[in-house]
Amino acid sequence: GQQLNQSPQSMFIQEGEDVSMNCTSSSIFNTWLWYKQDPGEGPVLLIALYKAGELTSNGRLTAQFGITRKDSFLNISASIPSDVGIYFCAGLNYGGSQGNLIFGKGTKLSVKP
Amino acid sequence: EAQVTQNPRYLITVTGKKLTVTCSQNMNHEYMSWYRQDPGLGLRQIYYSMNVEVTDKGDVPEGYKVSRKEKRNFPLILESPSPNQTSLYFCASSPHRSAGYTFGSGTRLTVV
């Protein structure tokens, strides 16, 4: 089946640093999504991208939908301790009536105060 | 409050004993889906539903059943649970096929 390669697997950074993570795929997606998961909770949607080349921000978060439609990245600026968690990219294909959302394996972010 | 509600949050059961995990959403969403999350494997889709009485298999459907008799509910049924179904399960819903899913808080299932 389709797979997303998300990197890095984990990051350990100092508070105030910027963070960058990305996802690549061999398949084209119609939509790219970025989620954050806190311990013991379900993933929460951070940013949704619907067009190739689209650049979208949500506070200190910025994400882009790659021109080839096969990749996306997420940047977090000036990280703070509450940014700790696992970040997932997800690609969505909706040909026909399907709504099949494929997830990357996640990037675990640790922030040192 | 708009949400996806799963029950129970935690469940320990024995091999072969049928169980149902309930899922309900109050957002009138058409799409609903079940995922399981395992260390190193990420989130994998079990089943999804595009509307009432319309369901389809995801990537890992073996050993699971679902039903969608009402728009708001999408229960996950394990007819004969096995230890390899020990996992963290998430239900999610979406208003339409091109939108992101809203996830429930998860059900941690242990099969012994």
The share of residues in extended strands of chain B comes to: over 45%
Percent of residues of chain A in beta strands?
over 45%
Which range best describes the helical content of chain B: under 10%, 10-25%, 25-40%, 40-55%, 55-70% or over 70%?
A: under 10%
Cα-atom Rg of chain B, whole angstroms?
13 Å
Order of helices and strands of chain A: EEEEEEEEEEE
Mean pLDDT of chain B: 94
> Which H/E pattern describes the elements of chain B?
EEEEEEEEEEE
Greatest contact between two chains: A-B, 27 and 29 residues
- Strand-pairing-aware structural class of chain B: mainly beta
**Runs of chain B with pLDDT <50, length 5+?**
none
Q: How large is the count of helical segments of chain B?
A: 0
What gross morphology of chain A would you assign? globular
Characterise the protein shown here:
Chain A contains no helices and 11 strands. Chain A has strands spanning 4-7, 10-14, 19-25, 31-37, 44-49, 55-58, 61-65, 71-76, 85-93, 100-103, 107-112. In chain A, a hairpin with a 6-residue loop joins β9 and β10 (100-103). Helices cover 0% and strands 51% of the residues of chain B. In chain B, strands 2, 4, 5, 6, 9, 10 and 11 form a 7-stranded mixed β-sheet that branches. A 4-stranded antiparallel β-sheet of chain B has the order 1-3-8-7, with no helix packed on it. In chain B, β5 and β6 form a beta hairpin. Chain B is globular and about 35 Å long. The interface between A and B is medium-sized, with 27 and 29 residues.
